[in-house]
Amino acid sequence: MKRLLVLLTTLAATLLTGCGYNDFQRLDEQSKAAWSEVLNQYQRRADLVPNIVATVKGEASFEQETLTKVVEARAKATSIQVTPATLNDPQAFARFQQAQGELSGALSRLMVVAERYPTLQANQGFRDLRVTLEGTENRITVARNRYIQSVQEYNVLARSFPSNLTAMAFSYTPKPSFTVQNEAQIAIPPAVDFSASKP
Question: How far, in Å, CA of 197 to CA of 195, rounded?
């Protein structure tokens, strides 16, 4: 009986070693850490928005609608409660991603509109905030890429044989990843018309 118990224990240990259980734990923690960095960078951007809005408000004739859209997009993006469960809920993840995309779009429009205001462009505070925002957007891109890579490794493990058996046994489902919001639209090549430039 004792030998059978030792044999079963050894067999179970051997199976667990090759089943990917530890790899699931490692990759799950890796994706959580990468996600935390994404959230940190999004928070950094959200914290910049009030300073940018306050600086732009100093330009008396600045388009109020553009500022309002930025403030509303920030409010929406920061109101979404993000929990560890968000990583495993494709709908919650998509809502979060959409809100962050709206804030990115509103900030991009704000920067484009700001180009039309020379006094704002001459404002050193605004220029510093713009550089900080650009740096933050770059950090967001890097953090998102790291998250995408960690999720890809996790999902490959969850779908590959024999580790997919472990995934089924322990309910390790594939995690959602970032997607392009307007994938169908960007797949269409831009139309180029040179006839308008001819004399």
Answer: 5
User: Tokens 């994404």 correspond to what residue?
Assistant: 38
What separation in angstroms does the CA of 59 have from each of 47, 148, 177?
21, 40, 40
pLDDT tops 60 at residue 84: yes
Say what angle helices 124-159 and 163-170 make with each other, to 10 degrees: 100
Number of domains in the chain: 1
* Identity of the amino acid at 20: G
The reply to whether the predicted model has a pTM over 0.70 is: yes
Is the per-residue pLDDT at 155 higher than 90? yes
Mean pLDDT score of the chain: 82
Q: Is there a domain that residue 176 lies in?
A: no
Residue 168 neighbours by CB distance under 10 Å: 11
110 within 8 A of 67, measured Cβ to Cβ: yes
Q: Has residue 88 been placed in a domain?
A: yes
